[in-house]
Specification:
Oligomer: homodimer
Number of domains of chain A: 2
CATH architecture of the largest domain in chain A: 3-Layer(aba) Sandwich
CATH superfamily of the largest domain in chain A: Aldehyde Dehydrogenase, Chain A, domain 1
Number of strands of chain A: 16
Strand content of chain A: 15-25%
Helix content of chain A: 40-55%
Largest sheet of chain A: 7 strands, parallel
Largest interface: A-B, 66 and 66 residues
CATH class of the largest domain in chain A: Alpha Beta
Radius of gyration of chain A: 24 Å
CATH topology of the largest domain in chain A: Aldehyde Dehydrogenase, Chain A, domain 1
């Protein structure tokens, strides 16, 4: 069955999910050559249909402006010819990546002669629930296809016209390939009911990956009976140890906080060891001020800052928990590395924490005891990223412990299967 | 805080879960030597307290008999001196296994000089919900401890007295070790409310592993907001291909079905290619009859069986879905390997399917297209098992695709953490 995505049709969620399951059965054995050819057709089609995509996107933009959406959000929603070209190039880059399917994760022969191989295989149907940016529609579809999965997409209703056209362009491109168009499917409609149907499609959908703010992710986790991979909520800390190189610590703090503020791997909290606090703040405060950063400090931090003629905003518990996504930072002075670790244990979202120190003992303690997806040792928190890690692509950054933790590339979109070969082996 | 497990105390679930979190923070850096020493103390204590354990178990047995529990279930509930010795020996075996914590899963240096290492680390708090057998209490606690996790246990209320004493014996043993007694905790009480509290303890409990029948597992999946690993429901198929060695196929079928019937890796369904059906049934039917197996066959199967003077029970959809856990098997004749794969796609629980064939093409098709945790090629379904796979221990067999699929050993009780080391690296 090939599903119509014509918005005037009466396709139900169940129709789409069953089509996804059927497509998954064919996609699991697609070769790398077949998948790469399909991806290149998609990239070409996106560029060829640029005018249509921009026109559909204009409908979303007009609706957003009428709804009083902020210009920052409108910008995230906007597709231009150059952005579409970049999206198409990203699809071509995915085609160049190695195929994770078929990789032998473990392989050995048992004493009784049975040969055990654990292979990477596609998950099947990957449900994606995401906000505003329509480029995620193409990104997610390309990564799913490359890893042999069906992408079942539920974007923001604010990007409905853009997403519908993007999916239709990709599906039409697949008609000329050996991959079924049903490898890329949109959840029908924009109702909350359709999200609920996706979240409870256990047995039809193999995994759901939400991408967006904390509210979206919490709602998905609370309501889903399909396994979920939580992504991307980051209250990242920079800890400046007593044995830190002050100049290095200032550079890492500035980069972590200000290189890009609207991302999950930006630093939101600073912890400074009391032994180095005065020396560090003497250098850090002018740098933070020059960068336009507002500091929300605890009392100990405020006292030292005042010595340098700087007033900080008094920090509350809300600041310790905040993901500002702005030029704000919460800051505290701690009397020991243990106090820093305890603060992080209490307030972190488990994404990324950095330590700046030249003490091997302090580094080992911090890396061993802090329970987060990534620990940066004398490096910026901004490095927790699939591209920076050399994965070539990223479907999101997992902040949960099951299945995947940290940046997720193509391998994290696969599961495994054991193939055990014998010559008549039976158990005695 | 060290929690009292005195049943007369008013300890709440939240108290216990917070104690578990605190214990997890200390356990994450426990060395292998510390964990192994703790395990050996536990093993010794279990043997030393045999009389107390048998006495507590007698209360459970008496209650079970008063409730009219079947003798088969009473047997599963029963602890004897020799069973306790075997449980203690299993704990000593766990101590001998390699520690999964600290294993470097990936490690490389990026072009910019950043050193990336992905290490295995404990999950944290592992919630286990399980039925009848009190030996799981010790098994689960030992495997969790070895992998640096806190075991938060919720056994069957039918084994409450046994489980409470076993946990107390293990906790008392830990007092003499460097591992906190709170590494092993029992969910307080036997109410359904306490299960609900465990299932919704997101942020306090890192993963829940249910072990038991399909009803228990479904209930956990439906109601949990904590990530779950589904285990052990098995409707395993044996497919006898047109190119099968008939004698081998009979041996594998018999072993898969009858070597032990009450286990999840026993075969419940037989699919025979029509080209070989008469020849195969001529040999298989007498063997199945001799073993006391009742065949629930489709019409094509029944017609051939009748030629050999054997009447089969007509199969219904219930039979194709059944996990008999008994000397029954559903059986169908299929006209092609594709029909066999389609049948398995429709009815399998995704645990284990076997193919018997000498055709490399058929084997590749079956192994590639069947979407189950394990594919047995010319081997019994009974080999899907942590011990048989050489894992040394097994916490369960995952039938889901996320995190772990197939037999789960100690590695599957860990997550990973990235440690990225630089010398002042910032992003440009």
């Amino acid at each position: 069955m090939t599903i119509s995505t014509d918005s005037s049709s009466t396709t139900t969620f169940r129709d789409v999910a069953l089509a996804a399951r059927d497509a998954a059965a064919t996609l699991t054995t697609a070769t790398r050559a077949e998948k790469d050819a399909a991806l290149l057709l998609i990239a070409d089609a996106l560029e060829a249909k640029t005018a249509d995509i921009v026109a559909a996107n204009a409908i979303d933009i007009e609706r957003a402006r009428m709804n009083g959406t902020s210009e920052a959000l409108v910008d995230r929603l906007t597709l231009t010819a150059s952005r579409i070209a970049a999206i198409a190039d990203a699809v071509r880059d995915v085609a160049k990546l190695p195929d994770p399917v078929g990789e032998v994760v473990r392989g050995y022969t048992l004493p009784n002669g049975l040969q055990v191989r654990q292979l990477r295989v596609p998950m099947g149907v990957v449900g994606m629930i995401y906000e505003a940016r329509p480029n995620v529609t193409v990104d997610a579809a390309a990564l799913a296809l490359k890893s042999g999965n069906v992408a079942l997409l539920r974007g923001s209703s604010s990007a409905f016209d853009s997403n519908t056209l993007l999916v239709n362009v990709m599906r039409e491109a697949l008609v000329a390939s050996t991959v079924t168009p049903d490898a890329i499917l949109l959840v029908p409609g924009t109702s909350h009911e359709s999200v609920k149907e996706l979240l409870t499609a256990r047995g039809l959908v193999d995994v759901i990956i939400p991408r967006g703010g904390a509210d979206l992710i919490n709602s998905v986790v609370e309501n889903s009976t399909v396994p979920v991979i939580e992504t991307g909520v980051g209250n990242c800390h920079v800890y400046v140890d007593a044995d830190a190189d002050v100049a290095m610590a200032v550079q890492i703090l500035l980069n972590s906080k200000t290189q890009r503020t609207s991302v999950c791997n930006a630093a939101e909290s600073l912890l400074v060891h009391s032994d180095i606090a005065e020396e560090f703040l003497a250098a850090a405060l002018p740098a933070l001020q020059a960068a336009g950063v507002t500091v929300h400090g605890d009392e100990a931090f405020a006292v030292i800052a005042r010595k340098f003629g700087v007033d900080v905003v008094p920090a509350t518990d809300e600041d310790w928990a905040a993901e500002y996504y702005s030029l704000d930072i919460a800051a505290a002075v701690v009397d020991s590395i243990d106090a820093a670790i305890a603060h992080i244990r209490r307030w972190s979202t488990g994404h990324t924490e950095a330590i700046v120190s030249d003490s091997a003992t302090a580094i080992a303690t911090f890396a061993g005891e802090v329970d987060s997806a990534a620990i940066m040792v004398n490096a910026s928190t901004r490095f927790t990223d699939g591209a920076e890690f050399g994965f070539g692509a990223e479907i999101g950054i997992s902040t949960q412990k099951l299945h995947a933790r940290g940046p997720m590339g193509l391998a994290e979109l696969t599961t495994t299967k054991y193939i055990v070969s014998g010559d008549g082996h039976v158990r005695s």
